[in-house]
Amino acid sequence: MTVLNPVGQPTLGSPISGGGMKGGAWGAAIAPDGSFWAGSFGGAAMSQYSAAGVPLSPSTGWTDGALNHPQGVAVDQKGNVWIANNYGPKSAPGQGNVVVYPGGDPSKAVTISGGGLNHPFAVQIDGYGRAWVTNAGLGGARLVNTRAAILVGKFGGSITVVGPDFKPVAFSPIQSSSFKWPLGLAFDSKNNAWVTSYFSSAVTEIRPSGAVAGVYHLPKTAIPWSEAIDGSDRVWVAGFGTPRVWLLCGADTAACPPGSSTGTILSPRLGFQSAAFQHFTSVQIDQSGNIWLSNNWSKLNPPTGGVGIAEIVGAATPVCTPLTPVPVQPSAATATACSRPTGTPLAAGAPASSAAPTAVAASASQPGGTPAWAWAAIAAAFAALAVGAVLCFRRRFARSLPARRFRRGWSPGWARPQAAAWPRPAGRYRSGRTPAR
Questions:
Q1: Residue 192 within any structural domain of the chain
Q2: What pTM value is reported for the model?
């Protein structure tokens, strides 16, 4: 594990080893006592460190709750640690659950299933103490960067909401045609959930009641992995397929240029770009409005590890960190700009669903509600389409050979985006190198 100081330099003796960390997972969270929690994807465990960087978990990590390739992690207002127990890419359809360490105590682990949970990826807490979980489903991790990647995401995804009583709420799972391998999830100050879908390159806004409020599309090549909400409720989206950053107007349209509506792209259409950017998997915003981005891969083909962290300095509206759990701007009215929560009170009156609960089929189905015959039919259909496309292309290509000439090294290229007059990032791009993992 590596800890960076506010100017991007490694600190606390980074890199820090021990605590069972073996192939860090996607999620990380900070508890009210200042301890740091992160998934050990390869170790099938959770690693815990003190605020000083001292391992608190054993050398094998915390494995309570039968952890299996954990991914996202979040800490709620009561100090409970929520873990998206993904089960990894070599598991069966419908597997996966959520594990909770009440009060951060692994020995009291609670396992949650049902509500449509299916290979959960991200987990975040809203102001009502409810955990929202993205269900990525099976197969995406296997097929990325293969010739069959186009098939991934055709099987959708969903969102499961779990109440403070550790039970899925009645309107789970939340379904949307925009969900094509949903990954990252973040909340704005009004408890609206924002979800990025990898293969649809879409950002979906969901009301606290579970109703889908809007679907906002990025360029098809964006392939976003994660998003973060700033202190003005604007949405910053990190691209994995195309390593750029998009800024969307959020629910507070007063924080956007005149004429903007929720979902309007405020950055250049093709996103902010910099030579410091590589293929991102996560994005976060700090108390100074700096945007931190993880350069996870430097090349997609062949897959090559990324170099360091990229930072856009001062472009976002600042938010208090760690989140409490919704974004709050630092304030000059208190002794410290961001008072550290010791147990943030829950928002009153969690809204009921505005739609009827979605029933989950139980008979003749794979776990997770999709019938086995449907999976077979879908696979056969896509196989037939792929074969037909190849045969059609070969026939047309053969007929046109005498009349065509191709230039060596020709490619269509991409149009260069025009500079946008607003909003122009207020700082500069900065990249830092972290020690190799």
A1: no
A2: 0.79
Domain assignment present for residue 190? The answer is no
> Are the C-beta atoms of residues 14 and 432 closer than 8 Å to each other?
no
Mean pLDDT of the residues in the chain: 81
Question: What digits encode the pLDDT tens for the residues 112-140?
Answer: 999 999 999 999 999 999 999 999 986 55
For tokens 């192939």, the residue is 23
Q: Supply φ then ψ for residue 399, to 5 degrees.
A: -65, -30
Any domain includes 371 = no
What CATH number is given to the structural domain containing 101? 2.120.10.30
Does residue 26 sit within a domain?
A: yes
Handedness of CA 400, 401, 406, 408 (dihedral sign): positive
Domain with 89 in it: 19-175
Which SS3 state, helix, strand or coil, does residue 235 take? strand
Query: Nearest 5 degrees, angle CA 84-CA 86-CA 88?
Result: 155
Structure tokens at 4: 């960076």
Alpha-carbon separation of residue 228 from 47, 130, 138, 233 (angstroms): 24, 19, 25, 9
Structure tokens given for 426: 């207020």
How many domains is the chain built from?
A: 1
Find which of 52-66, 83-97, 365-379, 418-432 is predicted with most confidence, using mean pLDDT.
52-66
| Both tokens assigned to 269 | 């259409």
Residue 327 preceded by cis peptide, ω within 30: no
Sheet holding 70-75, edge to edge: 70-75, 81-85, 97-101, 110-112
Burial class (CB in 10 A: 0-12, 13-18, 19+), 418: exposed
